[in-house]
Amino acid sequence: MPRTRSVTVRAPAKVNLQLSVGGLREDGFHELANVYLAVSGYDEITATPADRLSLTVSGAGAERVPTDESNLAARAAMLLAKHSGAEPNVRIHITKHLPVAGGMAGGSADAAGALVACEALWNLGVTRAELASLSAELGSDVPFSVLGGAALGLGRGEQLTPLDCGATYHWVFAIAGFGLSTPAVYAAQDRHRQEAELPFTAADMPVPQPSAQLLDALAAGDPQALAASLSNDLESVATAMQPDLAKTLAAGRASGALAGMLCGTGATTGFLAADAGAAEHIAEQLMASGTCSSTLVAHGPVPGPVLL
Ligand SMILES: C[C@@](CO)(OP(=O)(O)O)[C@H](O)COP(=O)(O)OP(=O)(O)OC[C@H]1O[C@@H](n2ccc(N)nc2=O)[C@H](O)[C@@H]1O
Ligand SMILES: Nc1ncnc2c1ncn2[C@@H]1O[C@H](COP(=O)(O)OP(=O)(O)O)[C@@H](O)[C@H]1O
């Protein structure tokens, strides 16, 4: 029996511990070796029975999120309804806390949250693994947002293998006052490779591989070793597009972070801290530096979307 009352889910952000970008494929996506970690910053997604599909958004950056059928959460509800033969008769409300176009997979979190909320509302008995596999058509990051935890993502990021984490890792995220478009950053990386006369197509480049050093450090629960293994191939091109990011990275590193890096395609920067106390200190220093608009102190791994 479908539920008659609202279902609310909180859905986490992600950080990429390794983002190795291989060649451009004919379908317009890049081959990746993408190591994901779900972290404790969340959007909330509420699904309420209704006589048609509708969507509203509130919270930070809500004015930059579409409320029509292009919203990833609305697309998720339509996809699940089609898959299960249900009618997408649901009112979805998203409360944004995650940065929009921030490289933390906020939109993917909203899609994952909508899938989990609608699955519960319509009482479909679809497993989390099925939701993850279904969700790949919504976006490359959405399957990870459905599963959470830590995982290696191959292909365009959607082919997931769960990873062991030997510890909870503490992070500070510096939210920028601007966003960066994911396709624009990937395209800038391709242009850079072409201008440098480097190979840039999947036909001419090897498939990127996960770093054994990173996976060992992650499993060992050693933040110092993890810090030494973090990498993001898109950091230099994104920093060239938004030079202010270099100032934020410098400020976080100077305040005692074990490492600082761009989150995905940005514009958020992430700083790994030795422990929870160090994370609070780094967040204070980052705000005092004036190089970001806000900070998020978070830890990971955390599970995927959870019913509240
Ligand atoms: C860079 C990453 C790292 O996790 O995250 P963000 O920084 O955006 O959060 C992802 O690759 C983003 O995944 P996602 O945001 O789901 O992207 P999608 O909707 O699948 O694709 C949007 C566009 O990004 C580019 N794209 C995406 C994934 C990929 N492997 N190669 C690409 O070239 C393509 O131009 C594509 O049209
Ligand atoms: N539910 C959603 N939340 C945020 N952005 C969304 C959503 N649905 C669609 N979008 C669009 O996707 C773009 C990327 O959003 P987001 O997922 O926040 O960033 P990123 O891909 O950098 O992690 C936004 O600029 C917005 O236009």
UniProtKB/TrEMBL annotation:
GHMP kinase N-terminal domain mapped to chain residues? 71-149
Where is ATP annotated to bind?
A: 99-109
Q: Quote the Pfam families the UniProt record gives.
A: GHMP_kinases_C, GHMP_kinases_N
The record's active-site residues are 14, 141
**UniProt EC number:** 2.7.1.148
Cite a single GO MF annotation.
4-(cytidine 5'-diphospho)-2-C-methyl-D-erythritol kinase activity
Q: Which domain of life is it from?
A: Bacteria
Which chain regions cross the lipid bilayer?
none
**The reaction(s) this protein catalyses:** 4-CDP-2-C-methyl-D-erythritol + ATP = 4-CDP-2-C-methyl-D-erythritol 2-phosphate + ADP + H(+)
To which pathway does this protein belong?
Isoprenoid biosynthesis; isopentenyl diphosphate biosynthesis via DXP pathway; isopentenyl diphosphate from 1-deoxy-D-xylulose 5-phosphate: step 3/6
Alphabetized InterPro entries for the sequence: GHMP_kinase_C_dom, GHMP_kinase_C_sf, GHMP_kinase_N_dom, IspE, Ribosomal_Su5_D2-typ_SF, Ribsml_uS5_D2-typ_fold_subgr
User: Keywords on this record?
Assistant: ATP-binding, Isoprene biosynthesis, Kinase, Nucleotide-binding, Transferase
Q: Where is the GHMP kinase C-terminal domain?
A: 215-286
UniProt-listed SUPFAM superfamilies: GHMP Kinase, C-terminal domain (SSF55060), Ribosomal protein S5 domain 2-like (SSF54211)
Do the record's keywords include Transferase? yes
The similarity annotation says: Belongs to the GHMP kinase family. IspE subfamily.
Protein task? Catalyzes the phosphorylation of the position 2 hydroxy group of 4-diphosphocytidyl-2C-methyl-D-erythritol.
Quote the NCBIfam families the UniProt record gives.
ispE, PRK03188.1
Name the record gives this protein:
4-diphosphocytidyl-2-C-methyl-D-erythritol kinase
Q: Which organism is it from?
A: Streptomyces decoyicus
Encoding gene (name): ispE
